[in-house]
Amino acid sequence: MWRCGCSPASDVTRPNPNPSSHPPHSPCVVAPVITTDGLTKRFGPVQALEDLTVDIPPGTWGLLGPNGAGKTTLLRLLLGLTDPTSGSARVAGVDPARDPVGVREQTGLAPERDAFVRGATGTEYVTYAGRLGGLPADVAAQRAHSVLDFVGLGEARYRPTVDYSQGMGQRVKIAQALVHDPDLLFLDEPTNGLDPEGREEMLELVGNLASTHDVSVVMASHILPEVEAVCEGALVLSNGQAVTNARLEDLTALRRSTLRVRVRGDVDAFAEQLAGREAELETSPEGVRLVHLPEDAGPRLVLAAAREAGVQVRELTPARQDLEEALVRSLQEGSA
User: Fold this and answer.
1) Contact between residue 107 and residue 182 where contact means Cβ atoms under 8 Å apart
2) What is the pLDDT of residues 95-136, one digit of tens each?
3) Residue 264 belongs to domain spanning
4) If we measure between CA atoms, which residue out of 299, 262, 250 comes closest to residue 279?
5) What is the CATH classification number for the domain harbouring 275?
6) Radius of gyration over alpha carbons of the chain, in Å?
7) Alpha carbon separation from 253 to 91, 112, 248, 249 (Å, rounded)
8) CB neighbours (10 Å) of residue 209?
């Protein structure tokens, strides 16, 4: 259950269907912006998405996974562009399978590939997107100017989109996705093809979306530092299944059963002493030594092993995993 002021667990459960059962002063429940229940999609013999049951709260959320994990299929299902084989979804309160037009009125998509209108200027392109989103002509034109200013294309609004640079093209795609004031914005690889400076500017823009436009964002990306920079949490897919769905602070939390250690002396003897105590010494590719403790063990076990091995402990701290390590571990556990 997602609650105000609380960090949700990795396995997201549904809100209580009986609100009256909450204590009088319990924290308020935040309704998910996306809910899926057993969502499954097959293409002939290929299982693209399998029994996906997750909740994604309001805010900025990453969508991660290797190629073929099911990210594109999930986006198409959530946007009502394809029907599920079984299961269901609700996006901004709308069932995309039953009301695909309605869900696209509540959402915006900035696709990975360019989809410009030949010969249209930035203003014409974004105004046209607003009309498709159900806005009257005068409102669509007014909103187009506003969102083009927001994404930094105010001075280029009357230039043909075919003359835009790669970075300008990414920005105008966000503008057309925002023009009809959606509740939820899907960004598919928004920094694709940008140089380092362009990436930083795009991430700053994405980071400002929630605060300036009160819109939730789902950002599909294969670049982990970008997700870590702007997202509050992430859904990780592998082989069409969810392997984790959690806030980043929970994914990268301190691992109480693993300690980072730096010692001086006979490392092999130290490892033997640890093994005799059912602990394991691991050396990462970067040369960092980690001690994996058995259940209910603590730092005293490491200090005792060091004393018996005759080594000096120079550092002993809880280990914190970065997002890349957390993702790798999640994928390994998901495939086990």
Assistant:
1) yes
2) 999 999 999 999 999 998 888 888 999 999 999 999 998 899
3) 255-320
4) 299
5) 3.30.70.260
6) 24
7) 29, 31, 8, 6
8) 22
